[in-house]
Amino acid sequence: MQFNVHTAKSQLSKLIDAALAGEEVIIAKGARPVVRLVPVAQSGFKLGTQQGKLGALPDFLEPLDEDELDLWEGH
């Protein structure tokens, strides 16, 4: 689908939906195509998705117990 700049401005939401649906959306100046509207590739990585799933994390400010201290000191 090809649209001129004026139409693209007034129909941007619809053109974005069309591009997200996999349609080719071209914006033209006059009769000359100048821009292709495409979705941004999603990485699948989302911040915060593991919240509450890690279990209890160690408190790094607490002193080590004797067994852990012996491991670090090589006894």
Automatic annotation (TrEMBL):
InterPro entries: Antitoxin_Phd/YefM, YefM-like_sf. This is Antitoxin. The keyword Cell membrane does not apply. Gene3D superfamilies: YefM-like domain. The keyword Mitochondrion does not apply. Belongs to the phD/YefM antitoxin family. Keywords: Plasmid. Antitoxin component of a type II toxin-antitoxin (TA) system.
